[in-house]
Amino acid sequence: MRLYFYGILPVGLGLAASLCAADAQAQTTATLRGTVADSASGRPLNGVSVQVLGRPGGTAADALGTFRLGGLPAGTYTVQASGLGFAPRTQTLTLAAGATGTVTLRLPATSLTLAEVTVAQPRDPNQSLAAISNIDKLLRPVNSAQDLLPLVPGLVIAQHAGGGKAEQIFIRGFDVDHGTDFNVSIDGLPVNMVSHAHGQGYADFHFVIPETVDQLRVYKGPYTARFGDFATAGAGEFTTKTRLDQSQVKVELGQFDTRRAVALVNLLPLNGHLLGKGPENAYVAAEYNFTNSYFDAKQHFNRFNGLAKYTGQLSDRTSLMLLASRFSSRWDASGQIPERGIREGVISRFGSIDPTEGGSTSRTNASAVLTTELPHEAVLRQQVYYSRYDFNLYSNFTFFLNNPVDGDQIRQTDGRNIWGYTGTYERNFQLGSRSLRTTAGLGTRLDDIDLALRNSVRRTVTDTIVTGRVYEQNLNGYLDATLNLTDRLTLNAALRADYFRFRFREDRADSLSGRAGKARVSPKLNLYYDVTPAVQLFVRSGFGFHSNDARAVVTNPAGNVLPRAIGYEAGSTFKPVPTLVVNTALWALHLQDELVYVGDEGVVESAGRTRRYGVDVAARYQLTRSLFADVDLNFNQGRLVGEPSSANRIPLAPTFTSVGGLTLRRPGGFSASLRYRHIDSRPANEDNSVRAKGYFLFDAVATYTKRRFQVGATVENLLNVEWNQAQFDTTTRLRNEAAPVSELHFTPGTPFFAKLNASVLF
Question: Which family does it belong to (predicted)?
Fold first, then answer.
C-alpha cells in the first residue's frame, strides 16, 4: 500500500531544520526536573501547574507526574507545584551551569477553593478554557458516557436511536450532526470516523468508561495546529487516568430495567515495577450496561466496555504508555416519530412507526506512546494506534414514503480497520532573555472501509443501493511556535498542512468508483496578554476544514473536497474576585460552500456557504467554602450566505444554549448537585416554517463517600417535562396515508428517571 508524503514536505523540512538547530546556551544554562504526586496515595498528579517563582512561564506535570523546566541561568530557585484541590508546595535548590537539578514535591489534598485558580496557561496558551475545565472536572457529575461530551462548555447533545448511536452534537451555532465539525479524541486515539456509513465525522464516544476519564482539554474554533480534520467549531481532547485513586466495584440500578456494573482495579502496588525501575502504573476497567429505556417497545440496550492501561518510566529519559480497549453494543430503537402520529392517536408519545429499528456496533483499540527526552531540551513523542470498528444500523426515516407496502427501512453497515501514527518533536530555545517553544508534528491515518447502504424490511435486506470499499489516507504535518514577546505578551503562530487520498470502488457500478487527492494548508495566529495574574486577554485566528465523504469526492473531485473554515475571536479569562472565574469570547466562523454526502439516501447535496457569529460566556463561582455555582451562556446567529432573507436559516443551528447548576461539597464526604440544561427553539428548515422545540430541564445528583464505600442517587428530568431530543423537518408518509406530509419529527426526551448506585473502594 503506497504512502503519499509529498503533501507535508514543507513541514518535514521545518522539522529537519528544528532538529539541526544549534542551542548556543545549552552549556551555560541549567535544567530542573522533578515529580509531583498526591502525598497520601502517592498517585502521580497529571496536569498540576509547576513554575519557578519570580520567573515568567511554567509547565505542567505529565501523566507520570514528571516535569522539566530548561534554559535556567545558574542560580538559586524556588519551584512551586499547585493544583485544584491540593495545597501548593515549594522547594528551593541551587543549579549550576550545565547541570540538572531534581526535586520531589508531594501535595496534600485540601478543600477546593477557586482562589487557587490561575487564568494563564503557559504550557499551552491556546487552552484558554483550561481554568474552567479543571473546575468542572471536580464539580460536574459524570454518570455515563453520554455525560462526557457535555463537559465541553457550550456543548449540548441529543440522542435519537435507543442509546446505541453517537449523539447529535450542538456547539457554537452548529448542528454538527454526529461530529462533522467537532474533533474528538481520547488518549490520542481519534474518535471521529471519516466516510462513515451514517454520516461524515461520526463520533461514537460510548467506548469510554466515564470513571476512567482524568482530564479534558477544550479548544474552541480552528486555532490550534494539532487538530486538522473536523476541528472547525473546536476540539475536545480526553485522557484516561494513569493510576486509579482506589480500586472500585460499582453497581447501579434504575427505572426502565436499568442496571450497570463497573469494576476498576489497580494491577501494580504503589512503587511496584513491571518493565522498568522508574514509576509505573497499570490498571484494568470493565463496564456492563443494560436498559429497556422508556419507550413503549423495549429497547434491549446492552453495552460492554473493557480497558487495560499501562504507563511507566522506563528510564530517566523514556516513558511508555500502552492501552487496549474493547467495546460492543446492541439495541432496538423506536426511531423518530411524526407530530401528527401522536395528534391523530396512531401512536403514543413513546411509541414508534417502525419498531424493528436498531443495530449493533463494536470497536477494538490498541495504542502505544513512547516519549523520549533528547539533548538540547527536546522531547520526541511517538504514538502508533490501531482500531477495528464495526457498525450495523437499521433505520426508517420516511416510513412508507417510497415503499407504501413494506416501508422505507434501510440498513447501513460499516466495517473498517484504522491505522495511525503521530509524532511530535518539542524543543525550547532561548532568544536572549525570551523563550521560544516549538513543536513540529508529523502524522498519518489510513482507513480501510467496507461500506453498504441497503433497503430492508423488518431487518431483512431486500435490495442494495450502494456497496463498496473505501481507502482514505490523511498525511499531515505542522510547525507550531510560541514566543514570549514580553513577560506579559505571548505570540502563538502555526502552519499545518494536510493531504488526503481518496479511493472508492463500488462493487457494481464503475461510474461511482474513482480516485482523488486534495491538499489543504491551514495557518494560525494567536496573541495572549496577561494584564495581571488574574486577567488574560486573547485574540485568535485560524483556518480549518472538514473533509467530505470519499463516495462524494470521487464522483466530483472538482468540488469542495476539503471545505475551508475561517475563524477569529477576541476574549478574556479573568477573575473579578478571587473566587469567581469567567471566560468570555466574541467569535465568528465562515464556511465555504461544501458537498455533503447524505448516508441515509446515498446522494450528494450542496449545503452552500455559511457564516456564524456568537458570544460565549462561562463562569464558575465559589459562593461559600462548600457551595459552588456554574453557568455557561452561548448566543449564536448563523445564516446561509447568498440566499434571500426568507430562506437563509441554517436548519437546527441553535441560537441560545445554556447549562449550569449549584454544587455542594461537604468535608464529611457528602456532595450534591442541582443542574439545568436549556436549548432555545430554532429553525428546522431554511425558511423557518418548521421549528425545533426548545427545552429547559433539571437534573439532580447526590453522593456520600467514605474511605471504603460510596453511595449515590441521580435523577434526570427532575420535573418530568415533556421535551424533544433529536428533531428534524422530514417529509414522510404513514401507512395508508393519501399524501406525504412535511413536518417536525422527533425523538422524545427522557422522562423522570431515577437511579441508585453503590460502590466498594479498596
Answer: Belongs to the TonB-dependent receptor family.
Q: Is 2.40.170.20 the CATH number for 129-761?
A: yes
Q: Structure pTM? A: 0.89
- Cα gap 419→386, rounded to integer Å: 5
Cα dist from 178 to 167, 193, 205, 218, 597, whole Å = 6, 10, 10, 18, 14
pLDDT digit string, tens, across residues 199-246:
899 999 999 999 999 889 999 999 999 999 999 999 999 999 998 989
- Looking only at the bridges linking them, the beta strands covering 49-52 and 603-606 are unpaired
For 413-442, how does the pLDDT look when each residue is reduced to its tens digit (9 = 90+)? Answer: 999 999 999 999 999 887 877 889 999 999
463/467 Cα distance (integer angstroms): 11
Tell me how far apart the alpha carbons of residues 359 and 357 are, in angstroms, rounded to a whole number.
7
Residues 6+ apart with CB under 8 A from 438: 18, 426, 427, 428, 429, 479, 480, 481, 482
User: C-alpha dihedral over 550, 555, 560, 563, to 10 degrees?
Assistant: -10
**Distances 421 to 370, 444, 476, 477 between C-alpha atoms, Å:** 12, 5, 10, 11
Which amino acid is present at 504? Answer: F
Q: Which residues pair with 532 in a beta bridge?
A: 535
Give the start-to-end residue ranges of the domains of the chain: 29-85+101-110, 129-761
Q: In CATH, what number does 29-85+101-110 get?
A: 2.60.40.1120
